[in-house]
Amino acid sequence: MGTMQLVELDALFRDLMRLEDVASIDPSLNGLQVSRHRSEVTRVAFAVDACMETFRRAAQQQADLLFVHHGIFWGRETRLTGAHYERIRFLIENDLALYAVHLPLDMHPEFGNNAGMAAALGLNEVRPFGTFKGQQVGCAGTLSEPRTIEQITQTLFGGTEQVLGLLPFGPRDVRTVGLVSGGAPHEVEEAIAERLDLYITGDAAHTVYHRALETGINVIFGGHYLTETWGVRLLAERLAAQTDVETLFIDLPTGL
Description:
Blueprint: E1 4-5, H1 6-17, E2 31-34, E3 40-41, E4 43-49, H2 52-60, E5 65-70, H3 82-93, E6 97-100, H4 103-107, H5 113-121, E7 124-132, E8 135-147, H6 149-157, E9 165-168, E10 174-180, H7 188-193, E11 198-201, H8 208-215, E12 218-221, H9 230-242, E13 246-249
Parallel strand pairs: 4-5, 4-13, 5-6, 10-11, 11-12
Antiparallel strand pairs: 1-3, 2-6, 7-8, 8-10, 9-12
Helix pairs in contact: 5-9
């Protein structure tokens, strides 16, 4: 089992995920959110959410650092009381560092949530898509062979029963796909403007239904969680391949 210094791991993540590129539009305090007493890191756990259950599981598996997509700081100071205090106390008492990367992990062209889904689908001619505060955080592309939205849902999420909803209002044979992971139901407008066959995001929205029906586009609401496991898994694989640090993934689905 290899060892890295925490400062070295921080530098690696910052460089790999290009954290500074979105500092002006992402208030998520990307980077090291809670440090640890010991400087050495030999095992890194990866998860979608920073919560007590992922903290407990990471500690049980003797992780030195927990890397998450959703951290515990969101652009404003929070009093260290109640549940917020208990989370931080647990991290400190267990000497478990917390590292969070939000928007850069959605939009990364290789290790991002959207890039991961695009690769799983085998999309060709992949390009940036889905504008958020002037940055394109998702991606779009073309399938080499047409597929149904049920087949695509099976590939990405394990079946139609796993997702929040399907709007099968577009062509049965899907060729062009737009992806924006997490909470981006209204970015369907960009997919409509580009005349894509299918738009995939995490969160569902009632107001999208009639808009999709009237414009003839398919929509998959995959669930916030299921559209955002891709980045942490890919980054865990990269870290394990690039260094001697041991990695593990903590799967804690919310059903949402």
